Amino acid sequence: MDEQELQQIEANVRLAIDQLGPLSDVDFGLNQASVEWVEGFIERRRSRPDFDLERIDGLIGVLGSFLGACIVANTGGSWHRPGDDGWGVLLPDGSTAFPFAKVHKQFRDGVEAGESIVSFYRIAVDFIATGKLREAREGGAGPR
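That's the DUF3806 domain-containing protein sequence above. Prediction below.
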């Protein structure tokens, strides 16, 4: 685990909160409302005439760090680097969520193509981390 990269992720999270919080109309922090605001921010950026996917790696880094930190804060997960796949969030069930890849996909394809960081966040927090997705795949949790 590269401590310097983790420190950069933490710095990116602080930058996102410091810079985007005052622009938002929500209690900006490591929460779903902020993820929803950031999704709108991405969509607004994508719609600008000067938008160039090839020139936003830094923004993807900042927003991916923020999205991952939101998932960590709300699942009890931790940052994890599995091989060459880049940084992800190791969830309590052993799955890994890749927030940087998801932010990149939303910038590239947009919500209209199904690339929503809010859906990604909700699935990670509400279904994968809790084990509900695994239960559904295995036929439910049994009699209630």
